[in-house]
Amino acid sequence: MPDIATITINPAVDIFFNVDRVEPTRKLRCSAPKRDPGGGGINVARAAHRLGGSVVAIYPIGGVIGKLLQRLVEREGIDSIVTPSHVETRENFTAYEESTGDQYRFVLPGSTLHRAEWEACLDKLVTLPEKPKFVVASGSVPPGVQDDFFGQVARAAERLGAKTVVDTSGPALGEALKEGICLVKPNQNELSEFVGAPLSTDSERISACRKLIDDKRTEMVALTLGEDGSLLVTKDGAWRAEAMKIDVVSAVGAGDSFLGGLVAGLAKSLPLDQAFRLAVAAGTAAVMSPGTELCREQDVKRLLTDVKITAIATAAA
Fold this sequence. Notes:
Blueprint lengths: L3 E4 L4 E8 L14 E5 L1 H11 L4 E7 L1 H13 L3 E6 L5 E8 L4 E6 L7 H12 L7 E5 L10 H12 L2 E5 L2 H8 L3 E4 L3 H8 L6 H13 L3 E7 L5 E4 L4 E4 L12 H14 L4 H16 L9 H8 L4 E5 L4
Parallel strand pairs: 1-4, 1-8, 2-6, 4-5, 8-9, 9-10, 10-11
Antiparallel strand pairs: 2-3, 6-7, 11-12, 12-13, 13-14
Helix pairs in contact: 1-8, 4-5, 8-9, 9-10
């Protein structure tokens, strides 16, 4: 029985390659491309599966690229529940410039989905033969899909008796939070935009997270802060993780790996601070891997003991 079901309404095949230098006009000779399955929920599923989570991934596919996406997901040992789309599944491109060490990320928009196509994903969720503990809705919303799609996912998860986890931004985030979910994972910019404040200190960040909790929009907030680390905030406590000192190879998928580690830990009923520790190790491991590989289990295990978690609040402010 899967403990975690992820839903990705805007999936992609991620293509990664090296190039000596990115320049206009001239032909750029690139390395052989590496292709990985992508999209927020699929990446969360990949990370959680690598860390021992039992996962099923729900997503639409279309055309030749869609069939490739399904093969790539299932090659990683993740069960897929796919629905047909009339449009070709999108691709994203990441170029690593060898001369500078810079990354260039080209993220293509998803094509417009018909209502029946995105509703089919919801139908697959509510008719799962085995009920998961957690439903993770993550990633962007393509054209044609209502802003409240993740809110509808939350309502479907509630009917299943599952807890909802959301990682998105903009109007889709606001609509999801109206439903009162279990966990939301914004980054600094997403939370600042949502609350309309810069949130430059931990005190301000925790207050903003607690406001969401007190308003019954979510039970927990996992706030990723890039080079400044991360926070996990509940009604009665907050934990701080400093960023680990490692050599950054690729920033792609760090947030998805973080969330995959956190949900995998929660699904195993780990204490909150230990699930948070696993999340930090997974997010850190992702930036050590090239391209779109995400976290690797051996790196996560090696980093776990070096993760420093500090309890910085024990009562609601």
